[in-house]
Amino acid sequence: MAFWGMGLGIGLWMLTAYAFPPRPSLRALVDQLQADPAPTPILSADSEGWALSAGRPFVAALASLGVPSRSLRGDLAVIGKSVDHHLAEKAILALTGLLLPPLVQLVLVLADAGVGWEIPLAASVLFGVGGFFLPDINVRREAARRRSTFRHALSAYLNLIRVLLAGGAGVDGALKYAVGVGKGWAFDQLRHALVTARLTRSTPWSALRQLGVELGVQPLTELAASVSLAGTEGARVRGSLAAKATALRTRELTLAEGDAQAATERMSVPVVVLCAGFLIFIGFPAVANVLGGL
Q: SS3 breakdown of the chain: % helix, strand, coil, rounded to 5?
């Protein structure tokens, strides 16, 4: 009964929050009217899928709780996933985790093999909490992987810009021709940023700076600052770009070496567990005989 009462209460609260969403204060509305318009985001987000359609009634209720956090919103932008899609997926997985153990318990009861209510209740809470936070873990892991890929591609992009500048190309031409050589997700984002700058009649380095902020990649904002000096002040930046490319390669090699060492250490865990199990298997008969003779 306690489980069904808790589930009924959560469902009624979600339906109430969906039917009567909280109203923003007058000060918040006035601040929105007086605030400067935010620049158009360069990173696009996908807002399609069955999870969004199924979990849309719970999106407003979860958003009223202040989720996701600011850092997680940045990770969602990096992987190209909308906030509504993420919240709908969290709701669907949480409800699935909550309802799956009672359904299994019902099947077992019908088969005359049911267990006590304590185990399904604990499993529902555990699976519900796990399903609620599992999308966050997946988003952070995928965002970290994409940022690492982008930094690797940015190192090659810096070298290409340096070569073009040494060949006599201008700053705008170097940025344009260098990005046309590479392929993959990272170069697609760089191309999209430069196209956005051309369509909005802004400078390429401002678009690159905005892309660096949205991605959370500090080397890209530093590149935008260096290229801005070259474009506005005529500064020579070939040496700076070469140093940044070298630093990026060194950082990526260090991270790769650390990941390889961590993987090596994780590989030793199954061997230790296997050896421990083998020792227990060998020593159990002797210990049982000694204890039986007491």
A: 80, 0, 20
Distance, CA of 96 to CA of 106 (rounded, Å) = 15
pLDDT digits (tens, 9 = 90+) for 61-102: 888 778 888 899 999 989 988 888 899 999 999 989 888 888
Q: Which of 124, 144, 164 is the last residue of a domain?
A: 144
Collapse the DSSP code of 180 into the 3-class scheme (helix H, G, I; strand E, B; otherwise coil) and give the result: coil
Which residue type occupies 123?
A
The tally of domains found in the chain comes to 2
CB 163 within 8 A of CB 94: no
Please tell me whether residues 130 and 164 are part of one structural domain.
no
Long-range contacts of 132-136 (CB under 8 A, 24+ apart): 132/90, 132/93, 132/94, 132/97, 134/93, 135/86, 135/89, 135/90, 135/93, 136/68, 136/72, 136/90
Structural domain containing residue 177:
148-250
C-beta pairs of 265-274 under 8 Å, 24+ apart in sequence:
none
Residue 280 falls within a domain, yes or no? no
Sign for the pseudo-dihedral over CA of 12, 13, 17, 18: negative
State the amino acid at position 129 in one-letter form.
Answer: V
* Whether pTM exceeds 0.85: no
Considering the domain architecture, whether residues 245 and 190 belong to the same structural domain is answered as: yes
Hey, how many other C-beta atoms are within 10 angstroms of the C-beta on 111? 8
